[in-house]
Amino acid sequence: MKIATIGTSFITEWFLSAAAKIDNAEPIAVYSRNEQKGRDLASQYGIQKVYTDLDTMLKDDEIECVYVASPNSLHYSHASAALNAGKHVICEKPFTSTTKELKELSELAKSKHLFLFEAIVTIHMPNYISLKEKLPELGDIKMVQCNFSQYSSRYDKFMAGEPVNVFDPKFSGGALMDINIYNLHFVMNLFGKPNDVNYYPNMTKGIDTSGVLVLNYEGFHAVCVGCKDTKSHNISQIQGEKGYITLNSETSRCANYSLTTNDGTILPAIKQEDIALYYEIKDFMKIMEEQDYAACEALLEYSNEVMEVLEQARKKAGIRFPADAI
User: What is the DSSP string of 111-137?
Assistant: First the structure.
């Protein structure tokens, strides 16, 4: 699968590093509005084609799939343009700014018989899949707690008054969209759509730099802390009547976990690739290679449920994006 990338941030570098380890993934082009950034990235990964005009890149018949890692607010327009050009799309999280945008992309992909994926590493990680299999051993669930806190490398610039996309509502930024979404996926892929959701943000200069997301399920609550203005020990726990599971890492990488029951504690952690994106890319390549549209459709339906909950939480907290008005 010949792939082009949109964006030159660290996440694109991770994508390219991971793709290099997968036989049927072949990055062949880079798009950036800044030609020098594009050339630097392409040179680093041995990529020959560099584009500064998106329409021109999308006319390249050699490109089969486009990886979208632009600012959140541009995910919809970039993914839509790629689909309309007949390219499959892998789009970074959060998939889109609104549920409406995601539904339109899903319908477009289906009408053109193209694959469309959300690049959310959590649900593809081997330790997460293993953890999910162990869940019945906990009995009835009573409490879920997730904390993913990571002091942003751009927070100081933001506080100094410099424009920073990830802390700008115009770019659909904020802690909920950027980091707490991993917690949301961690919980929802285990337990499904909650009965209700509320978000309690810490607002700074009109954007949530941290916050607490509360998901209400039948019989238990899930409390998700996501911070870009502080750091802490990243840990998650799932507590049941017969035991508990502890994840001692970010909910993105799911690096390791332990299961404690009345019979004792076991550490069933699986050794994983250093770059978490490896697993999602491998899964997407397999689905496309096998032409498994049913698997793609199931992932899209799941992503749509997550987006509905994400949007509900955001709007309840009074956080609005320009895309809401469209």
Answer: HTT--EEEE-GGGG-HHHHHHHHHGGG
Residues shown for the chain: 326
Q: Are 232 and 148 in contact (CB under 8 A)?
A: no
- Name the token pair of 228: 């870009």
- 25 near 38, Cβ under 8 Å? no
- Confidence label for 267 from pLDDT (cuts 50, 70 and 90): confident
The residues, ordered by sequence, that sit 6+ positions from 196 with a Cβ below 8 Å of its Cβ are 215, 216
d(CA 89, CA 80): 9
Which domain covers residue 174, as residue numbers? Answer: 123-270
| pLDDT category of residue 86 using cuts at 50, 70 and 90 | very high
> Is the pLDDT confidence value at 269 over 80?
no
Residues 254 and 283 grouped into a single domain:
no
Q: Token match 């502080």: residue? A: 230
Domain shared by 173 and 258, yes or no: yes
* Residue 317 forms part of a structural domain: no
Question: How many beta carbons lie within 10 A of that of residue 272, not counting itself?
Answer: 17
pLDDT tens figures, 185-237: 999 999 999 999 999 999 999 999 999 999 999 999 999 999 999 999 999 99
Q: Is the pTM of this model over 0.70?
A: yes
Which two tokens mark 65? 């799939």
**Mean pLDDT over all residues of the chain?**
97
Q: Are residues 156 and 242 in the same domain?
A: yes
Tokens 């053109």 belong to: 112
The domain total for the chain is 2
